[in-house]
Design goal:
The protein has about 210 residues and is α/β, with parallel strands linked by helices. About 50% of the residues lie in helices and about 15% in strands. The protein has two domains: about 10-125, Resolvase, N-terminal catalytic domain (Rossmann fold), CATH 3.40.50.1390; about 135-205, no CATH class. It has helices at about 25-40, 65-75, 85-90, 90-105, 125-160, 170-180, 185-195, 195-205, and strands spanning about 10-15, 40-50, 80, 110, 115.
Amino acid sequence: MNKRPSVAKRVGIYLRVSTKNGQTVENQRQALVEVIGRRSGWTLVEEYADEGISGAKGRDQRPEFDRLLKDIVRRRIDIVAAWSVDRLGRSLQDLVGFLGELNSAGGDLYLEKQAIDTTTPSGRMLFQMLGVFAEFERALIQERIHAGLVRAREKGTKSGKPIGRPRIPRRKVEQICAELARGTAIIRTARIVGVGVGTVQKVKQRGEPM
């Protein structure tokens, strides 16, 4: 019986250093290129490098990370490779969000330093653990949204004035809250509601209408 040919995996590597003080991404690039070269069926198709940018910065301040996330959603790459988990972000919330976007798009993750490879059965356990964190995060978001709406209504009732001065229609804010509460990813929520990703992030962070 003839074996079905394996499908080539398109790999995008993400590179980042926090300062420009003599640091470069070259060591990270070299290590990852060597790994990809040894893997059968892996092909490097794109590089994303944020030099001199802290991992604590949001995606709006990391242009190449933002481009990476967009290419993940557009399914232009199959695997994201990075030297270490701290190259991707510095907070658990950001990491969970990134892994959620990647998993939703059917992508995989390779981290050299932590020896994580979600193309393997053992590596995919990472995505299973992600489900636990994502469920916990959804519960927190729902609580913040509910508490925020209660505070806003009470404030509006006491002042006799409309609740805040929304930058976008309240209907859209409520749609964003509803999608986030369902567990919809940030980028997909923005596309469904028809707003910018930054707007969705602000609503998520505040847990209440803007």
